[in-house]
Amino acid sequence: QVRLVESGGGLVQAGGPLRLSCAASGVTVSRYPMGWFRQAPGKERQFVARISLLGSTYYDDSVKGRFTISRDNAKNTVYLQMNMLQPEDTAIYYCAAKLVGSTWDNWGQGTQVTVSS
Q: CA-to-CA distance for 79 and 70, rounded, in angstroms?
């Protein structure tokens, strides 16, 4: 059974950093594409970043240059380092895995990130 558990969310002032973690079980993060998504109040869930099997990374334009996705294969954990946070980054952040086909089919429960101005 695949389980993804996010942590590291919280309240931070604008301009500050935060690092999110996604601890995985039932899936090896180095063998599947892993991603981060976010959902702000009243908005649809949107893509933030992803990391491929080979370690290539991709970002939404809104976070490029500020956020970094990485993984620790020994800990079977995926991270999202977020720098220069802005109030518009406030959202619930979700970790996801793409195990079958082209859809993100496994999701964590999410962690709240709130950025105050």
A: 5
Kindly give, in sequence order, each residue whose CB lies less than 8 Å from that of residue 14, ignoring residues fewer than 6 positions away: 85, 86, 87, 115, 116, 117
Q: Which residues touch 54 (CB under 8 Å, ≥6 apart)? A: none
Task: Decide if pLDDT at 101 tops 90.
Answer: no
Backbone angles phi, psi at 30, to 5 degrees: -80, -10
Interstrand relation of 67-72 and 3-7 (parallel, antiparallel or unpaired): unpaired
d(CA 101, CA 111): 26
Phi then psi dihedrals of residue 97, to 5 deg: -125, 145
Determine the residue type at 53: L
pLDDT, one tens digit per residue, over 21-72 is: 999 999 999 999 999 999 999 999 999 999 999 999 999 999 999 999 999 9
pLDDT at 30: 95
Tokens of 88: 């518009």
Q: Which one, of 40, 45, 36, lies nearest residue 8 by Cα?
A: 36
